[in-house]
Amino acid sequence: MVICSSTYSSCMPPVEYPTIYPDSYTCLLDGYEKSGSLLITMGQQDVNRDGLYIKFDCRLIDNV
Questions:
Q1: Which of 15, 33, 47, 48 is the most buried (most CB within 10 A)?
Q2: Which of 41, 63, 36, 39 has its CA nearest to residue 51?
């Protein structure tokens, strides 16, 4: 998960979560829930002023 600012054209260092999900759906749902909680924590004023946005991805891990 990465927090970025469109105002400053920069991103914070990524934060990786060690959770392993059974499928893409579960990973995406959790990512959106965590993103929403983080937006609330950052607050409307800061998000709007700094053009903050959150991005994340779900990666497939091969169990070889």
A1: 47
A2: 39
Radius of gyration of the chain (CA): 14
Which residue do the tokens 């929403």 mark?
Answer: 36
pTM: 0.84
- What is the SS3 string spanning the chain? CEEEECCCCEECCCCCCCCCCCCHHHHHHHHHHHHHHHHHHHCHHHHHHHCEEEECCCCCCCCC
pLDDT digits (tens, 9 = 90+) for 24-53: 999 999 999 999 999 999 999 999 999 999
Between CA 56 and CA 45 the distance in angstroms is 22
Residue with token string 């959790």 = 30
